[in-house]
Amino acid sequence: MTFQTLQGQSVVVLGGTAGIGHAVASAAAAAGAQVTVLGRSAKTHGDLHGIAVDANDTASLGRALAQAADGGKIDHLVITIGSRTSPPPFASLQREDLEQGFGTKLFAALMAVQGALPYLAERASVTLTSGLLSRKPTATGLLRASINAAVEAAAKNLAKELAPRRVNVVSPGVVDTEVWGAPADREGMLARIGAGLPVGRVGTPRDLAQGYLLAMTNGFMTGAIIDIDGGGLL
């Protein structure tokens, strides 16, 4: 079967307490999945079961994933964590900036996948998160571009190594989330950015959630980069 339903499936979202991750968790729950959200401040709310975790602590990740599996299997693992800090220009970039950036978005994600392996169903899906800067060079985007490109390369290798489990990546463009500051501060800025995109607006977390659901439910998709960027790469 190429397409599958999420009804009754186990979905774990690392980074699902806010923004894109929360939208993915909510959409999966609405589709009938049993959803567990992992995050620093995760709490059980409505249909979403929360487990607190420090994604940069491998032992904490392992305990949280075992708790999320609850003696069963994880059908879909979604990872949306990332750094919220703005990297400095290359001339002032420090080793600590590299370690923090790669540590949060790449290393923690890989440790989460590794920690989930004992619980992943035979044909489970794993969906990572990169970003359009992986393939859109900018004057100040070196660190983010390097991290996102590494996530995409890692996913393609994992798609081969972990088969028949599927591994894909969603690559967002600019999305209206708290990463861009308080609503009052970001409204004008995001309107200007959106005006320069072919679709005439920036994305919403719900726009992105549809891509993650596609990665989870399309059984013939693996090693794919799903660009949801409003034409930002054009």
UniProtKB/TrEMBL annotation:
Stored Pfam families: adh_short_C2
Highest taxon listed in the record's lineage: Bacteria
Keywords linked to the UniProt accession: Oxidoreductase
EC nos: 1.-.-.-
Keyword Lyase: no
Cross-referenced InterPro entries: NAD(P)-bd_dom_sf, SDR_DHRS6-like, SDR_fam
Extent of the signal sequence: none
GO terms assigned for molecular function: oxidoreductase activity
Family: Belongs to the short-chain dehydrogenases/reductases (SDR) family.
PANTHER family the record matches: DIHYDROANTICAPSIN 7-DEHYDROGENASE
Name of the molecule in the record: Oxidoreductase YghA
Gene from which this protein is expressed: yghA
